[in-house]
Structures are given as C-alpha cells and as structure tokens.
Amino acid sequence: MKAVGFPFERGRLDESEHPFTEGWRATSGSRRGFDTAEPFSGLLGALHETGHALYDLGMPVAWRDQPVGP
Q1: Nearest one of 48, 19, 22, 50 to 35, comparing CA atoms
Q2: Sign of CA dihedral 47, 53, 55, 58
Q3: Which of 5, 29, 46, 61 is most buried, with most CB under 10 Å away?
C-alpha cells in the first residue's frame, strides 16, 4: 500500500478473515478464510482494495452522491 502511495494519515489497513470481509459478508460465510498456501491472494486483495480506497479518497466531494461515487 505504501509503495503505491496510500496516505496512511487518511486511512488504515485492518486485519480480517478475508480481504473482502465486511458488513454482512463477515457473518454470511460467503467468503473463505485467508489461504496461507496462497499468500499472493492476500497481497492482491490488499492491492485491489487499496485501489478502491485511493479512488474514494480522490473523489471530489460534489461527486459523492453521483453514480461515480462510492
């Protein structure tokens, strides 16, 4: 995340069961746990989510309720 310029003063990286686990997904069992035999899946998941975060952080305030918003 640091290598691609994520501003840690504006966000953080939390540990979860799976890179995409949040909200209803955390309890629905719809995602499998982190596979230690496939460490790149976690790395790619973190990089993917970092891309979403960078997009959201760069979103102009006036656009947040528009279709391009989060």
Answers
A1: 19
A2: negative
A3: 46
Could you tell me which of 70, 49, 51, 53 has the C-alpha nearest to residue 61?
70
pTM: 0.65
Three-state DSSP state, 63: helix
Quick: pLDDT tens for 1-50: 999 999 999 999 887 765 555 555 445 444 555 677 877 877 888 888 89
- Residue 5 CA from chain centroid, whole number: 14
Give alpha helix (H) positions in the chain. 23-28, 39-57
